[in-house]
């Protein structure tokens, strides 16, 4: 894997991988832009904290454009990407591959241009993003036990470090050293997920920062553990516990780009809830379902779905909890038709109709025992008149098996920009989309970052 990370070149990527990179970069930037908005009030705390860590101007916070040291910019932008559970996900790995990675690599590219006087072009960024996503997700699919540590943050940081090292043309020794240092700095457990705490997205932010900080230590020749993946206390045996690298190595040998296995998040909720929402939306549209005529909903799903979104409805829940609470999410689908970025307003979270619906949802096991699987899922809806409706999904909407159309991608893009801290006008949006569509032709990634910023009025 390290050889692949060091030697991958743009010309090695197929056109499908390059196209997928543009698609999921556009998605990640849009979600990161929306994370600046007033619906995420904790963004102010992240920005204030980052500003207190020291001054610098090697990179910028998205939307508002504050100049920051690159690690601090990565922290802010990583938080903005993941703070609404709307960023893309690699389902087989259970890794959000672009949250840590896009925030860290773009900050690293700005730093390289501003400090080292060596601009990063679009082709170099595309290649580094693929290196990073491959490393993060191949580690993720190697895990064989239920997650105890927050894999998106940890695998994301290791992938981001490999991508940063690739941007700098690091040799094998330097890349290994950087990864060893980042492994020593990893953080993030599933406790925040269990509690539905916003600290979950903070874990992304902290690991985004760690990737940049550890790269600087490595390039200044600080020594590091060398067997950071499979040593007796390396990532796989210690963090994952049970692991099998065979499938990952087989994908690597086959030259499979993991960017092609990434899925869109269609709703700003836990990905484990996507298939159920999709099924219920379809049944609602076809049969006029509402909170008034539904007597009971049963969801049959793999154990990971139960672990991630099978939490009970509670009064006074935080937004971060509600995004992972299936009774709230499916009740919202019945009430409003869809869960969007405005679904978590205080009056929505306190709606007594959703509280009354919650006991009427039951999660049941199906025949799938894969600890990393989110599908298949089946839905049974019983109405008050006694009729029963059924639906089934072998793949979630937004997945490679059921990809979003270009129009659907742009619908999400504009929905996100509508919720930014500052208004993105139509021409600004069009120019940003064009730059992403022609990413491989950009001479300096800073030109792209310019378009992620709106000047204060």
UniProtKB/TrEMBL annotation:
Q: Which residues form the signal peptide?
A: none
The molecular function terms in GO held by this entry are: lyase activity
Q: What's the name of the protein?
A: 2-methylcitrate dehydratase
Domain MmgE/PrpD N-terminal residue range list: 4-243
What InterPro entries has UniProt attached to this entry?
MmgE/PrpD_sf, MmgE/PrpD_sf_1, MmgE/PrpD_sf_2, MmgE_PrpD, MmgE_PrpD_C, MmgE_PrpD_N
Q: Which Pfam families match?
A: MmgE_PrpD_C (PF19305), MmgE_PrpD_N (PF03972)
Q: Species name for this entry?
A: Stenotrophomonas koreensis
Among SUPFAM superfamilies, the record links this protein to: 2-methylcitrate dehydratase PrpD
Q: Supply the PANTHER family for this chain.
A: 2-METHYLCITRATE DEHYDRATASE, 2-METHYLCITRATE DEHYDRATASE-RELATED
Family according to the record? Belongs to the PrpD family.
